[in-house]
Amino acid sequence: MTQAPEKFVGGGVPRKEDPALVTGRANWTDNIKLPGMLHAVFMRSPYAHAKITSIDVSAAKEQPGVVAVFTGEDLLDEYEKHPRENPAAVTGYDVSLHDRTQGHSVTGETDGADGQDSDEPRSFVSWIVHDELKIPHHDPLAHDEVNFAGEPVAVVVASDRYKAQDAIEFIEVDYEPMDVVTDLEEAMTEGSPLAHEGFGTNEAYTWDLATGDIDEAFSKADVTVKGHYLQPRLIPNAIETRGVVANPDPVNGGFTVYTSTQVPHITKAVLSSYLGVPEQKLRLVAPDVGGGFGSKLNVYAEEVIALVLARRMGVPIKWIEDRSENYLATIHGRGQVQDIEVAADSEGKILGMKVNLLADMGAYLHLNTAGIPLLGAFMYPGVYTFPAYSFECIGVYTNKTPTDAYRGAGRPEAAYAVERIMDALAAETGLDPAEVRRRNFYEPFDEPTDTPAGIQYDSGNYQLTLDRVLELADYEGLREEQRRRRESGDPVQLGIGFSTYTEICGLAPSQVLSALGAGGAGWEMAKVQMLASGNVEVITGTTPHGQGHVTSWSQIAADVLGVTPDDVEVLHGDTAIAPYGRDTYGSRSLPVGGVAVHLAAQKVVEKAKKIAAHMLEAAEDDIEFEGGTFSVTGSPDQNVTMTDVAGAAYMANNLPEGMQPVLSEEYFFDPPNFTFPFGAHICVTEVDTETGFVKIRDYFGVDDCGPIINPTIVDGQLHGGIAQGVAQALYEEAVYDEEGNLTTGSMVDYLIPGAPELPNYTLERTVTPSTSNEMGVKGVGEAGTIGAPPAVINSVVDALSPYGITHVDMPASPWKVWQAIQDAQGQEAGTRDADRSGRPAQAVDSTDTEGGSTS
Amino acid sequence: MIPLAFDYEVAESVDHAIELLGQHGDEAKLLAGGHSLLPIMKLRLAAPTVLVDLGRLGDLNYVRDEGDHLAIGAMTRHCDMERDSTLGEHCGLIAYTASLVGDPQVRHRGTIGGSISHGDAASDLPSALLALDANFVVKGSGGERTVAAGDFFEDYLQTTLTPDEVLTEIQVPKLNGAGWSYKKFNRRAQDWAVVGVAAVVERSNGSIGSARIGLTNMGSTPLRATAAENALSGADPSSVAEATSSADEGTSPSSDIAASDEYRRHLARVLSRRAVEEALTR
Ligand SMILES: Cc1cc2nc3c(=O)[nH]c(=O)nc-3n(C[C@H](O)[C@H](O)[C@H](O)COP(=O)(O)OP(=O)(O)OC[C@H]3O[C@@H](n4cnc5c(N)ncnc54)[C@H](O)[C@@H]3O)c2cc1C
């Protein structure tokens, strides 16, 4: 161990993880090979909605290398004969154990074989947003009905993956196609096809929230503006697809499950519950995980089936998802129709805001499907304070891949709608978009402050980030250039778009989660143990999958303990090493898990100080700790190092009376509140009005996520986050045809932008510490993805405003932008029957639902 | 993403390749860079039972100056054409167009022969070769023949190649001072063209002598914009916009999630104008 007089938090410590990752030596799930391991491949439904009338697997069973083939029917007893476990008491994830009277299985049948919860549909749902939430029965393998294209209907187990894949072609399934519903608005009309006929409706739930007197706000208003916006469905596209290896342990009768997940702890709880495997018999390991973006914040059918097969066949079972499957069978994100309306006075001060959402659930509820839009419910007011707010969200079933968390999860949607409507308000009041924002900001605050959505923000100084970004971008100069281009009729017009956002991070205070029906248990665990050598192990319940926790947690522990980051190893992602943890999502790892590391390390120092006092024969109050050395106040020569103390604590032959040996301390941190990072972004676009092509010329951002642990990592999170926000704004959309086929089923059609499409970012930071934790940290994993989409679209619309265009839906493809210009010029609209990419944008003169209206 | 099983044979020479093709009939496919063939095999949209690999035929990777024209071996990779100085000097259009194909990985594997033989109207090089009036040398069990680019492409993914024929060489006339341009419109740098336009423009005494325009992805094969070419012939450079407004005449672009046929037609007109204008400056 090295005595470390310097501090590491805030410094650009290189990521410890990178050498292995960039040289291809990481331990991905697909690299795991176990003796006797068999390979599973799934057969998936080509229909979005159909009855399965028969499945014949006999020919497939005869294929070379095939060991077994199972249908959904074959595996039913796996769920029914094992009494289900209730791990909720210890894990906080209350899976499928609610006393449900609403949700009946689609077929009307119940799973009563186990004699308990006979009305309860079997499902992966965790977040029960509402007492009357309708929960579709969701078996891992469909047996009598399929509800989205890509739903698994059979599984082949073979000696290798190629043989298993070939055998799939020999399974014969007869489907009786049923009516399909894909469009959210259509799904809510009378007579629409039903995703689950047993429910009699496509509505999963309605959830609302209201504060203040919204009617009064609108009746007093000088100005009202409304917007109708579409949030495209997005495919998360983690670079490593999903994969699982389930290994039976003949000695203890349990299982080790290796899976590419963000949430090994939650997965353990859910698998235990779903399959009746006692929790103490399950070990979950998340090996190196190549990204998740929320898509691996879930427990999936394939993980359940891998464990089922391992239990049934007594051998290790591996399944690795291919990219085509990833597009169909891993959750999607977003997918909302947003109506937002704002009432303001003639000065542009907001009096009230109404939000109505339709949120696409897809065909089934995954862990948090129903709750994702509600993470946005609290964030529509954004950085603006006003007296009245009303929010309503209707969850809608469709015959499409289920949705769930995707980077930002509910908050990008909220930030987009509010930032778009702020531009509409600016246009309506004739104010500069920066000015209308400024007029509605909170005064800078460093105490928890009430918001229109009934929560409290931890701290904020929105003026500061806006002022700085205006300076960085040379706002006046940009407006001047824009004027010149407009006057000269340049075919390439300049757009300047703002986004001043805040978001909710640091999931989460357990009591708040409980109150929202999300199970509870938002704490995080850290254990800091000093070894006999004086080196350090940090055990964390967070589960990094690209974020660099190993580096950041090392820096945090090193600073508290007075050692260097190289003296610290961070252990994670294995429930045998870290039995307690709530995993990684929602920008929670640092403000909850990192803070737990800090607090656990402090406990170590407290105990070490007592031992040091004992060793130095001084009073504890007279001991100072600095740079890894304990010394007696006033006589610095009298000292012992942390190494000395760690050794003494381990040897235990000279400890204070009654003290236990070793320096090893745990901390369970349950945050008192969320954290709310914020920032101001300006996106500068050049729009080719002849082709509709949008080029991002510059992107300026000033973000505030509180104190920084590692600037390189924070920059990386912002760069990637903004890229994903730009992707949503200009490129990405999961498009379905009327039969419910995903037409953007590969990376050729689903457009993920690469480096050539992205600008060099100009980023700066301000630091406003959070009041929700001792370190003041806020989290930064999703900020870019939340801030960027409205900045980009506001910029495109700004460029096109001379045409009278007030809105272009995401993704603002060249075709859509060109169409908007055509429409605005009153020309014949293009042939639209083939437009499956969303609607062409609407210009003011072609619709009455868009843009501002003065009342 | 897992192809059906197939056998793999290595061709030691063009004749050997022809022999292997003859043995296996239309069950066999030639493998060049594999960047069109392998993706469709992985999606099980193609399932040849034998692949005959041309990868070892290093003697088909060349660019030669043959006096009035350049000869390009069928196995020349996009990245090699991109950097080839002979091409740069005498036929910048090919070098530049090759530099816009896909991404660096694609350009290091994909070949000009594969691009042409695959017969995808969305590929970039075929329309450039069409605008250049290139010729293709094809060898089969019946001997060798030379096909003009304009006669080679028959329909979507369909060319005049018979199952036992190998495309061996591409012959392009030198530009000899003619202006050129390729305008590729795509959403991302790595994508195929939504629409692409190749232009070769000869100047004569301040006006346009002749213009040849090749269109990418405006129908089931690469096409020439004949009406616009006619309008440009002898025209004053100031009338390019008007002359290219017929660039989409005679095309039949598809409608898909990237573009409607109408939008493609519009792009063909805009890009043709820009391509001819740029060619006039080169
Ligand atoms: C991600 C990606 C992006 C791409 N982007 C573009 C793009 O922007 N523009 C573009 O033009 N192309 C693009 N391509 C296609 C790329 O250029 C291909 O490499 C090319 O089209 C085919 O060449 P190949 O050598 O890979 O042929 P292969 O895939 O090996 O073969 C293609 C077909 O041609 C046949 N064939 C090959 N060589 C011969 C020969 N000498 N004689 C007879 N038949 C032969 C094969 O049997 C096969 O049927 C892209 C490909 C990928 C994977």
Automatic annotation (TrEMBL), chain A:
Molecular-function GO terms, alphabetical? carbon-monoxide oxygenase activity; iron ion binding
Check the record and name the InterPro entries matching this protein: Ald_Oxase/Xan_DH_a/b, Ald_Oxase/Xan_DH_a/b_sf, Ald_Oxase/xanthine_DH-like, AldOxase/xan_DH_MoCoBD1, AldOxase/xan_DH_MoCoBD2, AldOxase/xan_DH_Mopterin-bd_sf
So which residues are the signal peptide here? none
Q: Which domain of life is it from?
A: Bacteria
Q: Which Pfam families match?
A: Ald_Xan_dh_C, MoCoBD_1, MoCoBD_2
Task: Name its co-factor(s).
Answer: Mo-molybdopterin cytosine dinucleotide
Q: In what ranges is there compositional bias, type Polar residues?
A: 844-855
Query: Which Gene3D superfamilies did the record assign?
Result: Aldehyde oxidase/xanthine dehydrogenase, a/b hammerhead, Aldehyde oxidase/xanthine dehydrogenase, molybdopterin binding domain
Give the UniProt keywords, A-Z. Answer: Molybdenum, Oxidoreductase
Please list where the region (Disordered) is annotated.
97-119, 823-855
Q: What is its EC number?
A: 1.2.5.3
Q: Does the keyword RNA-binding apply?
A: no
Does the keyword section mention Oxidoreductase? yes
All residue ranges annotated as the Aldehyde oxidase/xanthine dehydrogenase a/b hammerhead domain in the record: 23-179
Name it. Aerobic carbon monoxide dehydrogenase (Quinone), large chain
Native species: uncultured Rubrobacteraceae bacterium
Origin organism lineage: Bacteria, Bacillati, Actinomycetota, Rubrobacteria, Rubrobacterales
